[in-house]
Amino acid sequence: MSEIVLIHGSCHGAWCWRDVAPVLEALGHDVRAIDLPSHGEDPTPLEAVTLAGYAEAVLAAIRGRAVVVGHSMAGFPISLAAEMAPEKIARLVYLCAYLPWDGYSLVEMRKAAPRHPILKALRRSEDGTCFSFDPAHAREVLYHDCSDDAVAFALAHLRPQPITPQDTKIALGDRFAGVAKSYIRCRQDSAIPAEFQDEMSAGLAPGDVYDLPGSHSPFLADPAGLAKLIDRIARG
């Protein structure tokens, strides 16, 4: 089976995969979910976080050659990891994630979307170094189809998101281009509009684009269904 590395999105951590990883393991995969720098239990100070540091953390988690799944903002670090060491990555899987355009930052791509529903939930720190999700809007934007228990679990674990890695332009070339890619679109996503996910995934072969019916957080809303889809992709 496959080595699968799971990378979380903004403000989240390895904890968000708690219900997905066991299903993938039961299907025979070697699975690891990591905390990116300053997320989850990682002690890196917010001011020390960079996009390159994120990518290096992804590569450090890979033992052999892995299928790397990136959720939301993690599309940027997994892409940079592929540019840095394509030989370590069997396939990139973008889960309602930013599939980067060369020369753009994530902030610039977010602004390029036709709608910006996530903005109502973002609260920037006074010093401008990070942002957090407002609990009053987090469910609406991130977890609208998740159980009350799952939402409470998530809200208790969210941490501030450093802005620097998201405001850093990415440089991608032939090394990244040569890595196999799949995209999982979430059709009722209230964070990254479904039509923008369509645009970002348009360059992939139709057989490499998949749909899930729910929100931005299928790892909490339908972990078994998501795990089975990742398994299907990993098996090729």
Give the arrangement of secondary structure elements.
Elements (H helix, E strand, L loop, with lengths): L2 E5 L13 H6 L3 E5 L16 H11 L4 E6 L3 H10 L4 E7 L10 H7 L9 E3 L5 E4 L1 H8 L5 H10 L3 E2 L11 H4 L3 E6 L7 H8 L7 E4 L5 H4 L1 H13 L1
Parallel strand pairs: 1-2, 1-3, 3-4, 4-8, 8-9
Antiparallel strand pairs: 5-6, 6-7
GO molecular function: hydrolase activity
Protein name: Alpha/beta fold hydrolase
Keywords: Hydrolase
In CATH, what is the homologous superfamily?
A: Alpha/Beta hydrolase fold, catalytic domain
Structural class: alpha/beta
N-to-C CA distance? 11 Å
Order of strands across the main sheet: 2-1-3-4-8-9
Cα gyration radius (Å): 16 Å
CATH architectural name: 3-Layer(aba) Sandwich
Could you tell me the number of beta strands?
9
Number of domains: 1
What percent strand?
Answer: 15-25%
Q: Could you describe the largest sheet, including whether it forms a barrel? A: 6 strands, parallel
What order do the SSEs take from the amino end to the carboxyl end, as H and E? EHEHEHEHEEHHEHEHEHH
> Roughly what is the average pLDDT, rounded to an integer?
98
* CATH topology name: Rossmann fold
The level of helicity is 25-40%
Describe this structure in words.
By secondary structure, this protein is an alpha/beta fold. It has a 6-stranded parallel sheet, sandwiched between helices. A 3-stranded antiparallel sheet has the order 5-6-7. Helix content is 34%, strand content 18%. α1 (21-26) links the parallel β1 (3-7) and β2 (30-34). The chain has a single domain, classed as Rossmann fold (3-Layer(aba) Sandwich), CATH 3.40.50.1820. It has helices at 21-26, 51-61, 75-84, 106-112, 135-142, 148-157, 174-177, 194-201, 218-221, 223-235, and strands spanning 3-7, 30-34, 66-71, 89-95, 122-124, 130-133, 161-162, 181-186, 209-212. The radius of gyration is 16 Å and the shape is globular. The mean pLDDT is 98. The relative contact order is 0.18. It is built from 10 helices and 9 strands. Keywords: Hydrolase. Residues 4-228 form the AB hydrolase-1 domain. Pfam families: Abhydrolase_6 (PF12697).
